[in-house]
Amino acid sequence: MTPTNCMTAPASQDCGDAYGLCSVAQLIDVNAQRAPQSIYFIATQDGREVSFAQLQRICCELGPFFARHGARPGDVVSLFMSNGLDAAMLILAAMYHGVVINPINLLAQPSQLSYILDHSDTALLITTPEHAQTLQAMAAATERPLHVEVITDSSWLDRNRAAASKPDVVPAVDDAALLMYTSGTTGTPKGVVLSHGNLVANGINISLEHGLSSGDRGLAPLPLYHINALVVNLIAPLVRGGSLVMPPKFSATTFWKDAISFNCTWVNAVPTIIAYLIQSAPEDLDLDQLRSIRFCRSASAALPPEHHRAFERRFGVDIIETMGLTETAAPSFSNPIERHLRKVGSIGKPSGTEARVVDVQGHVLPNLATGEIELRGLNVMRGYLKNDTETTKVFTADGWFRTGDLGYRDDDGYYFITGRAKELIIKGGENISPREIDEALLRHPAVMEAATVGVNDSNYGQNIEAYLVLCDGAAVSANDLRDHCLEHLGKYKMPRVCYVVDDLPRGPTGKIQRLKLHDMDSNDIKESFYLY
């Protein structure tokens, strides 16, 4: 078929403007019709740009590539590669043709990777040369045919495009679009299945919360194998016709340079990135050049208030703290765009969702009472792939999703996270939030990052240990940490021991995986300070 036929693929002209749900494919078509020459995507490493018309054409012209390798609508195509134009286009092109795309965490261990490829029934695996040999060996060991496509250079995209073809099956709102495996802290990864409607619903929510328009451009340093980057940076701009700038990975050295050079109006980050930016800001950074940046969006983990305030003081850029999960297609809470309405330390108010706090029996709790946060909305996943047991566990009978996050709602309707249910420390029968201890330790000027965990103790049931990453060139002593903890925590909540390490175990966006602290050994520990 000709490109003209592709461009007449069914599309709701107002699905982006009127905020009616549609598929990702329809959003792509709408933007190609209403602003064909507007730039959608810019890659920082080589400056390559893609307009909305080009995006649609690329999506259309990659259809034969998927079909040639046996990937039909509803089949899973896995992607194991770093950020870049090719990765972004393949993700959107797969969705455009009804293929379910599965971006895999590049930090996945071989056993996890093998499990994901087998469990997902991957029909086609796309990667780059540095990973090819390992993945080809895994593919050869599978019982079903599994083609590994290796993207060797920047011309791959052009070589694998054919005459534009309208999809044989136009994806529907309820069709699966994205499969993402949770990194997890224990057990095998769970495959989260998200529909076109889930993704578009949260693209709409993000656009409304942040007041995004066609003139907005976001800096996207987070990996596309994480829900935050994929929905917030790749999908949300399609709602209002905005654009994104994507570096191959986060770099504290180039972060602000890219934001300034490419005229970004907002930036997307996680708490770890914010900590590194505070610590590693270039000395010659011209703060006047940051005035066009409306806000920095923080997500994926709770942002310590000390880092929140330090970032805003250092750069003069407001932070909007949000919160979401893979299962909720990224954010379910957001602070308001209006500065005077934000609350430091809060994840904000529900964003396009319903939320409540319940006790262990499922009874709704009053304001200020701590319990588990539950959610319900159009952005919430359909379930876990081939795992009805786990799906049933996380949904109540009336459709509320159990997040596993502990927190409370204040009298103004703002929500606060106090920790994860499975990470709660129970010392001598008292519930202690690890985050409370983390934040106290972060008030020490030498501490850049902190993570606290409970360990078995014969006297108390559990006791407290903390792992610290120090600021460059900083030093501490046991007496120094002891005095600091006594002042900010008191003796009962003071860690028994603090370990200094170079880095903390993390998920794909740098989110600290607290329970994996137990797996760190003596080789990981630089210093140990016993406080009592």
Write the layout of secondary structure elements.
Layout: H1 3-7, H2 24-34, E1 39-43, E2 49-51, H3 52-61, H4 63-68, E3 76-80, H5 85-96, E4 100-103, H6 110-119, E5 122-127, H7 129-141, E6 147-150, H8 156-159, E7 176-181, E8 191-195, H9 196-210, E9 217-219, H10 227-240, E10 243-246, H11 255-261, E11 266-269, H12 271-280, E12 295-298, H13 305-315, E13 319-325, E14 330-334, E15 349-350, E16 354-358, E17 371-376, E18 383-384, H14 388-394, E19 401-409, E20 415-420, E21 425-427, E22 430-432, H15 434-442, E23 447-457, E24 461-470, H16 478-488, E25 497-501, E26 525-530
Parallel strand pairs: 1-10, 3-4, 3-5, 5-6, 9-10, 9-11, 11-12, 12-13, 24-25
Antiparallel strand pairs: 1-2, 7-8, 8-18, 13-14, 14-15, 16-17, 17-19, 19-20, 21-22, 23-24, 25-26
Number of domains: 3
Mean pLDDT: 91
CATH class of the largest domain: Alpha Beta
| Shape descriptor | globular
The whole-angstrom Rg is 23 Å
CATH fold annotation of the largest domain: Rossmann fold
The CATH architecture of the largest domain: 3-Layer(aba) Sandwich
Q: How much strand content do the residues show?
A: 25-35%
What fraction, in percent, of the residue positions are helical?
25-40%
Write down how many β-strands occur, each being a DSSP E stretch of 2 or more residues. 26
Strand order of the largest sheet: 2-1-10-9-11-12-13-14-15
Q: Which secondary-structure class do the elements indicate?
A: alpha/beta
Q: Ranges with pLDDT <50 over ≥5 residues?
A: 1-14
